[in-house]
Design goal:
Layout (H helix, E strand, L loop, with lengths): L11 H14 L3 H13 L1 H10 L4 H15 L8 E2 L3 H9 L4 H10 L4 E2 L3 H8 L3 H16 L2
Helix pairs in contact: 1-2, 5-6
Length: 145
């Protein structure tokens, strides 16, 4: 069986008892921890049950994923938004307006932007507007001096 290195955070008292048991049995700390996990998870029993089970692996995997999802705490739903291309173009032209503030909020991680291939294709059809936005920005900068 292959081994994988991992980091585990343990209570000081638990680690002390792991070390005591390891010293008494002449084992490595990691072996004591693995043996305890195997016992607690009932892996020997599961191995015996699985050896008799005829469930296809795909079905077993699906059930395992469902069980894992069922035990996870529910997270707050993240806010997602789809930008219209005109909003993105407006944001390129001015950071001060509502479109600019929306894009800034997205870049700050306030919400997740959802895009499709069609939206990206439409945006790329307007690539020349990036140059226009740069020109507008430079013109504003020169006018304010």
């Amino acid at each position: 069986m292959s081994k994988v290195r991992t980091t585990v955070t343990l209570d000081d008292e638990v680690l002390k008892w792991v070390k005591v048991r390891a010293a008494r049995l002449g084992l490595a700390d990691s072996q004591v921890i693995e043996d305890s996990l195997r016992r607690d998870l009932g892996l020997a029993l599961l191995d015996r049950l699985w050896s008799r089970d005829q469930m296809p692996e795909e079905q077993a995997t699906r059930l395992a994923v469902e069980a894992q999802h069922a035990t996870r705490p529910r997270r707050r739903r993240e806010v997602r938004a789809v930008f219209d291309v005109s909003v993105l173009i407006s944001a390129l032209l001015s950071k001060r307006g509502a479109p600019g503030r929306l894009v800034a909020a997205w870049l700050d991680g306030v919400f997740e932007a959802v895009v499709s291939d069609a939206l990206l294709a439409e945006f790329h059809r307007h690539d020349h507007l990036g140059d226009l936005a740069q020109s507008v920005s430079e013109a504003r900068s020169q006018a304010s001096h």
